[in-house]
Design a protein that fits this description.
single chain; 203 residues; alpha+beta; 2,3-Dihydroxybiphenyl 1,2-Dioxygenase, domain 1; 4-stranded mixed beta sheet
Length: 203
């Protein structure tokens, strides 16, 4: 039997026949948020996630125990493939509350560069489009809660100049924000807001 010559904090060295045991402590696992930062790309049209924060809050689930190469711990890829191939779906279409559907359609056409799509005969719901972007309007009786949307702009400065020249209601000018985005805010005639943004860290 090898002779144990030293004990310290869960690790030991065994002497005899030149054998040396390594530490029994498990490798340190990264927190959930730092793991997400390595996998997620820069935002290209979605909402903005936490950036630069690696500490786990009390509401976060505990990290998975075990080494990343441990076959007992399923990888993210294996969890997805186990469900089978995903069907193709298009991007969601927002439905905005408005006081007057026809007025909203005309405003989006004149100030935001959209094209008027269709309008139901009762004028309770209608649609506009711009490229691949489609927006529905539904008539609501004021007061109602305005909708909020985040819109990624590939060239944020060009988008700002375009909407400013077309007469859009820019309620917050273009500027660099402390959280790393360059953004401006547009409000429509019913108070619905659009936060146009570009992540300067991904430029």
């Amino acid at each position: 039997m090898p002779r144990v010559c030293e004990h310290r904090r869960g690790a030991y060295h065994a002497c005899g026949q030149g054998r040396r045991e390594t530490s029994l402590r498990r490798p340190t696992r990264p927190t959930r948020l730092s793991w997400q930062r390595r996998l997620l790309p820069c935002p290209v049209g979605g909402s903005v996630g936490l950036v630069g924060e690696s500490r786990r809050s009390a509401a976060d689930p505990p990290p998975v125990r075990g080494h990343r190469n441990d076959p007992r711990v399923p990888s993210q890829e294996s969890l997805v493939s186990a469900k089978g191939p995903l069907s193709s779906i298009s991007q969601p279409v927002p439905e905005l509350p408005v006081a007057d559907v026809e007025r909203a359609q005309q405003h989006y056409r004149d100030a935001l560069g959209f094209e008027i799509g269709w309008l139901y005969p009762d004028k309770e719901i209608g649609a506009v489009s711009r490229g691949d972007v489609v927006i529905f309007f539904r008539k609501k009786r004021p007061p109602f809660e305005p909708a909020v949307h985040w819109v990624f702009a590939e060239d944020i400065d060009a988008s700002y100049r375009e909407l400013e020249s077309s007469g859009a209601n820019i309620v917050e000018p273009l500027e660099n924000k402390p959280w790393g985005l360059r953004q401006f805010t547009v409000a429509d005639v019913d108070g619905n807001r659009f936060y146009f943004h570009h992540d300067r860290r991904c430029a």
